[in-house]
Amino acid sequence: MLSNLIILTIIFAIRTADSNLPCKFIETINITDGFKDSNDHFIYKSEIFPLGTYDEFDYIEDYAYVKISVNPHIRGCVCKQKQCLRFCCLENDTENCLQSNELNVFNEDNEEETINISDNKYSILLGRSCKDMYELERDAGEEWKFLNNGSLLLDDNVFDHNEFCVEKTDDSNAIVYVCFPEQEQDFRDIIHSIGFFISIPFLIITFLIYASIPELRNLHGKCLMCYTFSLTVFYSLMLKLNIFKHLELRNGIMTAVLIYFTIFLSFFWVNIMCYDIWRIARNGIAKRSQVEGQKMFIIYCIYAIGIPLLMTITAVLINHHQLFHHEYLPMFGENDWMHHELKAQAIYLYIPIGIIIIINIMLFLDTARKIWQVQSTMSDESSTKGHGILRRRFSVYLRLFIIMGLMWSMELISFVYQKIHILFYITDFFNCAQGFVIFLVCVCDKRTRKLFRKRFFASTTTKDESLTSAIGTYDETLKMTALKI
Q: Where does the G-protein coupled receptors family 2 profile domain lie (predicted)?
């Protein structure tokens, strides 16, 4: 307890020692282009910053308070001088964000008036001020008003300029984002971390069991191992991002890119397994040589790794060269790991995932139809045995597909309906349970348990069988001796 208190004290001292300004970093602007007068006042665009309201910085902070090293520059507490208005756009994208200089606001007497945001009455803050935000929708019955002090009135609640941002100034089409309550976001982060801590060990155990049992290292088992491995890496990266929130920009971008890659890596391995069971149902179960199995696995690897890699490289290039408007860019490293815009997440994440899920559904339906057709035609023992293997694999793949499909379906629903906060907790629950459920489906079935006992407890089983046989032989000898007597 004492050590934790000392650490917190040191961290607080470091944070407060960064700057002596009487405001938060997100309430400052770059005033380097100004000049200092004889009274040590800093003049920037006819705005006067008294001594103590400006300072030199060699970093900037994003909405998650992550410090990013930059060249030394002067920043001033702009909201100490006048009222502030915050817009969501970045500093280099004001043309698309500030489409109009006029904004309708309400004064203290609840009278509506039109102000010009470019005049000297207001200071403009750019960029989001918090990590997670949700969009207000008038169509859903939400009504809000902009107040002339730079605040937002929503359902009798007043939000200051650090709790919301505006994407457009056209009042009829204004897009407003509001920050989630900080305590609620902290609670979600705790749930995520606990869920990842639960899932990762079960995924690792599943991988190790399949890797250690020769009978499970067939083509089916190798695909399953690749799937659990990719999911383990994905969860580990998300856990890292959840715990170490204050990552440097370069480290955060690299982590975000790897997360993007591993998401699709896991989905494409599920797609491979769906295709594999469909191919078996269509062509029948045939004895494959080891060389043929290895060749097929290599082809699967090229597909399952190659396409996600190509998608990731394409997204990185689009993001790096700013080929589109910022709301259509993936913006890796933002909003935990990706752009908060629905359009960007739909293009780079949810639409591709939806396409994969639809393809998997079609493969499963055709596989189920084929199994039902073949069921009535199989009569001999070997065919029945082969059909049983097919059905068992189909059952495993189907359950795995349902697990991933259900999780991402809930994720999509909770993203679209962001104001229904309970949906986030339902999604978090599925994230928490997924690794454990995969363990139950893939390891706790009867065949895998039997192979596990045979692999690791074979000597004990043999000894028990030998002892039982010896006791039986001894009893038989006693009976024969008694008969002779």
A: 188-446
